[in-house]
Design brief:
It is a single chain. With 295 residues, the chain is α/β, with parallel strands linked by helices. 36% of the residues lie in helices and 17% in strands. It has 11 helices and 9 strands. It has a 7-stranded mixed sheet, with helices on both faces. Strands 1-2 form a two-stranded antiparallel ribbon. β1 and β2 form a beta hairpin. The chain is elongated and about 70 Å long.
Length: 295
Amino acid sequence: MQDRYGQSPFFSKLDLELILCYCLGEGGASKDRSFLAAHPEIEINFDQGMAAEIAVHKRFSEGEPLAYILGKKEFYGRDFCVDNRVLIPRPETETLINAVKKIVGEKQDQFLLVDVGTGSACIAATVKLELPKVQVVGVDISEWALTVAKENVDKLGAEVELLQSDLLEKVDFSAYDKESLIIVANLPYVDKNWDWISRELAFEPETALYARDGGLAEIKRFLQQVEEKVSDKCCNFDNIYVILELDSSQKDPLLKYIEKTFSGNQRIKLKQNKKILAQGEDNFALVFEVCKAIA
């Protein structure tokens, strides 16, 4: 197989080994890579060989992401089920989990976390499992994505409320009796005109990836909803945080937009908190404290 696909731009010896481990596994569980090293004489049967051929062709000829072929992706030390109804969890998204943990600290029972654009529920489920006393809600506009999210929270035993909503539209903050609120938003932020876009992205759901206005259209619409929701008199949280994932090239344009839009705002203020993220993490995320105007 390496001789046949070795010149492919998608070829990876690691991916080849993981595909073989997957095909040799039983009951949906892959063999460990150490199994291949310990058993170089292993022979595969016809069904395993056919499955490997199909998977290898998808990966190295068509460029389909390995996570979709295997049906899973590791995130924060746990495997999440994924397919083309949801984005594949990225390592940089773990930055958002670290930020949440720093904000919550020892006050888990005081927090409500709303994960907007939950997709596979990798953020929502991870927060619930890492911080079990935090109340967690996962929100997505896609019914298909919520089906995958439910599969993951059920499989992992994460008690997460799932809600179909266009961003925060159907979230009723008055229904939650908590002192503090964290809204995490990993929204579409890829600009189709970026020259680094990989062919592999063609397999992922466009509505979860791409946005207009330099990739910031959905983030701006989300922030407008934050203003509407937070300024409502029924929203009575003492502390409110917003955590956004974005590309490093979008930080300055977004901060300028926030300065222009919210600096003179009479309803809310957005203040960037630079202490939450470690050095380097701020390449992938921004953290804001939201202050309501005093009536």
